[in-house]
């Protein structure tokens, strides 16, 4: 499963078009990624979105580790998503999610915070895994999916306090939102209403996203 296919699936899910090919922005050499990474607390990780903001332009590259990409080709989640490739799938998807969301918002002259990127990526990881699993299992969605992503989540010990707080907060909000979606999808055979909800959510501003999540328990338990 190549980054381009992940991008296509994301854009199809949300009915957005960036008109850019993520593969053209891909970096697989960790040495080059280290040079391009201008963040204060650069970490050695298999995925990172590299962004440089100029006065009138945005320079973007996506680093995905070569071994990570190889594993996704050899054991493609598009053929079968399972415990052995789920982690690699989510890691690569996170990077592609950041790329698509940042570019799409930039094309619509909308600023995006790091928190928003992480929040949307967590939602994307649930939504894309749920979509693939439903395709591959005749519409059946494993009940454990939400717990695996959100309740069993761990964070890199190298994260600084500010980063850890951002990741934890994004995971918490996304977990609440996706938990409501998950309960709906477990109950209902069709995912059409959930797809419409995800598309609306994708287009909301940060403030409206958080408001929608805060309402999610009561709203989704009288479903979507």
How does this model look, in words?
There is one protein chain. By secondary structure, the chain is mostly helical. It has one domain. It contains 10 helices and 3 strands; from the N terminus they run αβαββαααααααα. It has helices at 3-14, 30-36, 66-74, 83-107, 114-136, 145-151, 161-187, 192-202, 206-214, 216-220; strands at residues 26-27, 47-53, 58-64. It has a 3-stranded mixed sheet. Strand 2 and strand 3 (58-64) form a beta hairpin. Helix 1 packs across helix 4 and helix 7 (161-187) crosses helix 9. It is globular, with a radius of gyration of 17 Å.
Distance between the termini: 31 Å
Low-pLDDT windows of residues: none
* Record field, number of beta strands: 3
Helix content: 55-70%
Count of alpha and pi helical runs: 10
What is the strand content? 5-15%
* Average predicted confidence as pLDDT: 91
| Largest beta sheet: strand ordering | 1-3-2
């Amino acid at each position: 499963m190549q980054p381009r296919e992940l991008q296509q699936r994301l854009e199809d899910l949300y009915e957005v078009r960036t008109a850019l090919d993520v593969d053209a922005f891909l970096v697989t050499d960790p040495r080059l990624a280290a040079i391009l990474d201008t963040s204060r607390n650069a970490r050695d990780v298999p995925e990172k979105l590299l962004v440089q903001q100029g006065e009138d332009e945005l320079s973007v590259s996506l680093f995905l580790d070569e071994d990570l990409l190889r594993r996704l080709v050899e054991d493609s989640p598009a053929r079968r998503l399972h415990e052995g490739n789920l982690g690699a799938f989510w890691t690569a998807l996170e990077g592609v999610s950041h790329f698509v969301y940042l570019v799409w918002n930039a094309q619509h002259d909308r600023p995006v915070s790091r928190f928003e990127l992480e929040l949307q990526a967590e939602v994307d990881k649930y939504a894309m895994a749920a979509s693939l699993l439903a395709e591959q299992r005749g519409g059946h969605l494993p009940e454990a999916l939400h717990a695996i992503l959100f309740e069993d989540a761990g964070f890199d010990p190298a994260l600084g306090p500010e980063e850890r707080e951002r990741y934890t907060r994004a995971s918490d909000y996304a977990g609440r939102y996706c938990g409501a979606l998950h309960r709906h999808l477990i109950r209902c055979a069709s995912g059409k209403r959930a797809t419409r909800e995800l598309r609306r959510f994708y287009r909301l501003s940060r403030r409206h996203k958080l408001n929608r999540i805060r309402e999610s328990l009561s709203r989704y338990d009288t479903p979507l």
